[in-house]
Amino acid sequence: MIFNMRANIKYSIFGIITLLVFWQLLVVIGITLNDNYVYTQIAPINSLEALWHLFFEEKFYNHIFASFYRIFCALFLALLIGIPIGLIYSTNEKIKNVFYLPFQILRMISPLSWMPIAVLIYDSWDGAIIFLIVMAAIWPIIFNLTQGMTKIDIGWIYVAKSFKANVIDQLRYAIIPAIAQDVITGLRLALGVSWIIIVPAEYLGVTSGLGYAINDARDTLDYSKLAALILAIGIIGFTIDSLLQSLNSKFKWN
Fold it and tell me: Which domains can be identified in the chain, with CATH numbers?
């Protein structure tokens, strides 16, 4: 296990070095072809230096908190709406047949396509952004829950009833263990797509959030900071996804 861990670290370091070399190569090509030294601002050394300075800026953490607030509000609403819909959709064949096509059509619409409607419906920019994220996050929750429900063996329910288990016990010992992994996978996918949507969504008139910070860096021509913010978004997203993946692995026994 220690050997595997060391091997993984070694490969990860090699991957990061490869990325940095490729990144620097693209910068050099950009300067050579366009004779524009603005590219030097987004070179790895300058971007990493700007990232280091970001860690000591209070504004940076305020932007992270603002983005997290919008994402978690949206995920809460997506779970609140998506879980009941997923349960009904997966347990009633007639409802599933009726709503399969509408759900698939809605699922394939880009969440950002709803932007004009969101602005029209909501008085606040936060409300519009949360709506866009909900429209992105709800579908992985519904369809992964549906997939999880198909794994439930009706025999488990009969066995539970034979032991006079009540509804709560049936949920606790038969249903939830069967669907937990798929629900967490759905949440992981929902969080991933939310993290992607939040940046362009925060171009909508708000004055906080990582998307706003990127837009502001572009407007002020601070390209090193812009590249640093992009790196920070990737690092934060990877960290969150890794935590959910670790949580998901606890349910692999199913």
Answer: 58-249 (1.10.3720.10)
